Amino acid sequence: MEFLSSVDIQDIKQLLFTDSLVSFSDEDHAVGELSITTDIVSRIGQPCILVNANSHGIVGSVPCGTSVTAHLKPNLETLEQIYHEYVELENHSFDKKTVITRRNAKYIVKCTTIKGSDIQKKEHIMSEEDMQGFISEGANILLQRLLVRKGLQEPTSFKSLDSECKLCIVMYIPLSKEERIFAGKEVQVVGIERRILSQDGSTSIWQAFFTTEGCLVQLNQEGSPVKMKLIHRTCAEKKLKTKCNWKEDLQFCSLYLDKKQSHLELSAVSTEGNCISDFSVVNPTSDYNGCNTYYSDQNLLRISLTNRIIFKS
Fold first, then answer.
1. b/e per residue, 86-123, with b = 16+ CB within 10 A?
2. 53: burial class by Cβ within 10 Å (0-12, 13-18, 19+)?
3. How far apart are CA 94 and CA 89, in angstroms?
4. Which of 281, 280, 273 has its CA nearest to residue 305?
5. What is the rounded CA–CA span in Å between residue 206 and residue 66?
6. Alpha helices, DSSP H, located in the chain
7. How high is the pLDDT of residue 18?
8. Comparing 225 with 251, which gets the higher pLDDT?
9. Measuring CA to CA, which residue among 58, 57, 40, 62 is closest to residue 49?
C-alpha cells in the first residue's frame, strides 16, 4: 500500500510506451498477437492514464481473445475498467465481461458471463477501504513495468479479483536476471512471476519477462499452450521513443529508399514528386489531409490519392 502511495506522475511518464508481441503455439506457429498501449488523457477534467491491451488469436481452430480498457489515477488506483474475454467454440461460445467503476467512495463490479444460451450476471459493491491496494488488470501492466524499473527485490502482494469477481491476493515474485535473444539481439531480461490466489483455493500463474527499461519481451501463463514473444523491435518501444534518424540506420535507410524507388513514377506528376514519394512512405492515417499538406491543387490531389490506392503496401 505504501509503495502505491509513493508513485507519482513523473514515475508514470517513464512507463508510457507500446508493447507488441506475437503469440506462438507449442508447435512454434504464430497464432495471434498482443498489443498494449498507454497514454495520459483527461477524464472529467483530471489527468489519468489510459491503458489498452488486446490479445486475439486462433488456437486449435478456435478464435479467442482478451481485451482490457482501463482509466487509472497516477497512483494506479482504478477509476474504471472494462475487461472482456471470449472463446468462440462451435455451438458453445463463451463470453465474459467485467466492468469496474469507482463511484463516490465505492466500487461497483459488474460481471456478465455468457455460456452458449445461458446468461449469468453478478454485481458486487465494495468499499473504498476494501479496495485499498487493489490492482486491476490495467494497473497490473504499469505496475510490472514500474517494479522492473525500480528493481523488485522480494515478493510483494496486493489485491486483485479472481475469476468469480471476488477480492483475493495477488503476489509479485522476482525471477533471476538472464540474457536472452529477442528480435535477433541478445538483451538482459528481468522476470516477474504473478500469482493470483483465488478464494476457492486455486492459483493462476503468469511469468513475464522485460528489458531493464520495462519493455515486455515474453509472457507465459502456466498451463496455456500459447507463449507470447517479442519479434520486432520498433520505435514504439520505450528505449527507442526518441525520434529515429533513419539516415543513420542502415536497415531503415535501405527500406526507405527501396520503397521510394518503387514509386518514382509519381515524380512525373510534378517537380515536387519527391514529396509524394515521401508521403507514400510516411503512410499517414488520413489520405486527404496528408496529401493536402503538400498540395492545394485538386487535380494533383486526385492523382496522388488514386496512385496511393494502387501501390499501398
1. bbeeeeeeeebebbbebeeeebebbbebeeeeeeeeee
2. buried
3. 7
4. 280
5. 15
6. 2-5, 9-13, 137-150, 250-262, 273-282, 287-294, 298-311
7. 95
8. 225
9. 40
In the structure grid, which three cell numbers stand for residue 152, read together?
A: 523488485
Q: Which of 191, 145, 175, 139 is nearest to 160 (CA)?
A: 139
pLDDT attached to residue 284: 52
| Residues 29, 34: Cα–Cα separation, whole Å | 15
In angstroms, the CA 167 to CA 197 distance is 10
Q: What is the pTM of this model?
A: 0.73
- Least confident stretch, 56-60, 108-112, 137-141, 244-248: 244-248
Per DSSP, what are the bridge partners of residue 194?
Answer: 172, 206
Whether the CB-CB separation of 246 and 234 falls below 8 Å is answered with no
What is the spatial distance between Cα 160 and Cα 203, in angstroms, rounded to a whole number?
12
71 or 11, greater pLDDT: 71
pLDDT one-digit tens code per residue, 142-176: 999 999 999 999 999 999 999 999 999 999 999 98
- More confidently predicted of 166 and 248: 166
Beta bridge partners of 45: none
pLDDT at 13 over 70: yes
Q: Which three cell numbers stand for residue 53?
A: 491491451
The count of other CB atoms within 10 Å of the CB of residue 243 is: 7
- The answer to whether the CB of 92 falls within 8 A of the CB of 99 is no
Number of neighbouring beta carbons within 10 Å of residue 184: 8
User: For residue 211, what is its C-alpha cell?
Assistant: 528489458
